[in-house]
Amino acid sequence: MVTWADVLRWDPAPAQQVVGPLNAEFQELHGASDELRAAASVEGWSGPAAEAATGRVNQLVDAAEELAAELGAARRAFGDIGDAITGVVHAREEALGLAQAQCFTIGPDGAISDQGPPPGTPPDQAEAVAAERQRTAEELKDRVEQVLRQAEDIDSDACAVLDEMLSGTMVDSSGNDNTNTSLSSFGDAGFTLGGLSILAPPAEGATVAQNAAWWSTLSQNQQRRLIADRPELVGNRDGVTGWARNDANLALIGKERTTLQSARADLQGQIDKLTNGPGHQNTRNVLQAEITKFNDKLAGLDSVDRMMLDPRTKQPKPDHQLLSLDMSGDTAMAAVATGNIDTAKHVGVFTPGMNSNVQNGMAGYVNDMNEMRQYANQMLKDPSRQSVAMVTWLGYEPPTTRVEDLDELLTGNPANEGAEKLAKFQEGINASRLDDDQPHLTALGHSYGSTTTGIALTQSHGVDDAIFFGSPGISEGENPAQVAANLHVPEGHAYNLSAEGDAIANVIPYGDRYGPPLEHMQGMNQLSTEQHGPMIASQGHSEYAVGDGQMSTSEHNMAAIIAGQPELAVQKQ
């Protein structure tokens, strides 16, 4: 069993340094291939002595073939070991750095010890500091656990390969025709057998911190291999870096399209086999309804293609990231960022509301948020050293105004289910970056999306500022979002915008279906949506953030909060 004390001594250099000599040994052995083939069959020599000599040569050839396989396995194994250890060392140093920065220690057995909060912590902040230190302790525990899990996996794989080499069971060369022997092929076979596996992600239900810790233990080569071979394990995993999720999800688009097309064709085949009798009409209707869902999902994938790919080159847009792609529901679900969430100093996550879907409306939202990003970038005190990224998150299925969706609207299930996923997505953005590099994170919710956002903010989320606009309310059922303090954002960092003529924001809340009106919620800042200087007013329910090149007061206010410049926002009079 590998311990933390063992891992502290791990160094990739010895394993990496042995690969060169092993390659040289293999090349020298490979150079003897022609001589071995010639010695295995000597024309014109027969009799007992010839048979004995041939038998001995065949033994030597078989041994050389096995040695070639073992050398191939060894150079692959030690190369993989050295590479994998770089991931372990990287994750180990991250954990040690976090522990030192936050006044924790990690014992030889991996146990986390809290050395106490910083001296001089004000008494009124003691409770908040204690809660934050508990979170840090849990994060360190997750990091240590994943480092040890990776180290154990490397050790187990390496021992398995070395055991086969030492026991002489790497390959069986006895049945090979030595007159046509190829040491190169045996070396290639050994090279394949010597490869190490890649550590599987944490089990289903893992926290975003566990996902982030697992990903950091993988070397860059392992990460790239996993994205290429098993993108479905990476693309929707909260806590994994944005670049990796983007690459994995882009790789999944084609696979998802093929799967959907095949399933649709199967359903159409079932319909084609039905007779025209009345007894089959219900079956035909059910199958056709399923085909419609597949058509909607395929249209969603087409929309994602248009959002993510340059129309001229068909190559991925460098300033876009596809952070989730989920076909498990009735419609496509996705999250698209403009900007780089791995490096941006400020990140906004926008959640749309009712009737929103990937196939029709998401591209417009992405354009709107990209314009918001540009406004926010212009407000930064030092744009050369800071940046903004904006995410449009449709990782849930909002209700529609269709009659068949009325039950969902009344029960609130989409908001509650979406809120759980949204909270993890937001928390994952922070978890994917080190504590001293985490972005200023703003959550934005419009209409029913504000309800989803509000419920998400009562959970663990990592959000610093919250903006609600066109909101019917941010509570659902027993959800406790009755005052801004329940949103788990710093005091004074929750904002509401209600435009003139917006019936959703100005009428529905007074029915108390979604909790108290935000205009009167304790602790909620009220921002202007009216004309202010050259900035135009917002009217109705859908003009808060319209990407038309003309800045509204609403857009200015939201951009100011996103950029971390709340003093620039215009308060409601």
Name of the level-1 CATH class of the largest domain = Alpha Beta
Largest sheet: 8 strands, mixed
Question: How are helices and strands ordered from N to C?
Answer: HHHHEEHHHHHHEEEHEHHEHEEHEH
Give the terminus-to-terminus CA distance.
66 Å
Structural class: alpha/beta
Poorly predicted sequence stretches spanning 5 or more consecutive residues: none
The number of helical segments is: 16
Per CATH, the architecture of the largest domain is 3-Layer(aba) Sandwich
Strand order in the largest sheet: 3-4-6-5-7-8-9-10
Number of strands: 10
Quaternary organization: single chain
Into how many domains do the coordinates divide?
2
Helix content: 40-55%
Cα shape: globular
CATH topology of the largest domain: Rossmann fold
According to CATH, the homologous superfamily of the largest domain is: Alpha/Beta hydrolase fold, catalytic domain
Q: Please, what is the average pLDDT?
A: 88
Instruction: From the alpha carbons, calculate the radius of gyration and give it in angstroms.
Output: 30 Å
